[in-house]
Amino acid sequence: MRNTIWFLIVGLSSSSVAFDGQPLQYEIDWGPVTLADATVELLDSGDIRSVSADISSRGVGAWFSDFQSTLEIMRTRDGTQILNGGSTWDDTLSNITVMWLPDESKPSVDLYRSKPRDYELTPVPETSIADTVDPFTPVFEIGRRLDETQRCEGSYRVFDGVRRYDLQIQDGGLTTLTSDDAADFNGPARRCDITLTRIGGFSTKKGLFKFGESEITRTLYLGQIRGHWLPVRFEVSAPIGSAVARLAVSH
Length: 251
Known about the structure:
Elements lengths: L1 H11 L11 E7 L2 E12 L3 E10 L2 H5 L2 E10 L4 E9 L2 E9 L7 E6 L23 H13 L4 E6 L4 E14 L9 E14 L16 E9 L2 E11 L2 E7 L4
Antiparallel strand pairs: 1-2, 1-13, 2-3, 3-4, 4-5, 5-6, 6-7, 8-9, 9-10, 10-11, 11-12, 12-13
């Protein structure tokens, strides 16, 4: 469940044009119940572009695991990219820093966990992490080009310091989002269909929430708010239900 929420936040961590760092509030639900709250801040100042996200479990999400996570990804003008993440869940703490330098094809990883994992991860081939990008880059780039291309599409090799996966993003066309809740975004949105191919770093542990990628669908919706293309909804659907992150808009 915690990994499902983390992928939702990665999907939300994007912006289409320069944004001023104003906090965006999201609620993450599983059907009718709330799993977590998230605050995302996006900044593109020209010299530096960054995204930061804070997420904490709430409601039913806290039943599965009481957790808090932070994620910060920054890219400087010279091409250096840095990912910093920290998480606490139950009595476990982890911190990670991943750095991509412009003159090196492979990123460096510094990972700390207060407790060893009680499960195995699929191996990440060393050669596969070359020429990768952080999880923030794909939708950021697609959103920036959206006004020009009118399409949401791209292929990316992604590495977050633990998981290595490929993303294929296809345009799903324009749609209109509706909601009975006035706090949710309603209106025209661009649909982006996301296919994830696992390369390595994923749990081998079998459990209630473990499914093959062929059984999971991921859909991101970008809407325009105050002249900016922003993530307004992200859905991850599996055989037992769907997790949905919704932007709470102010009126």
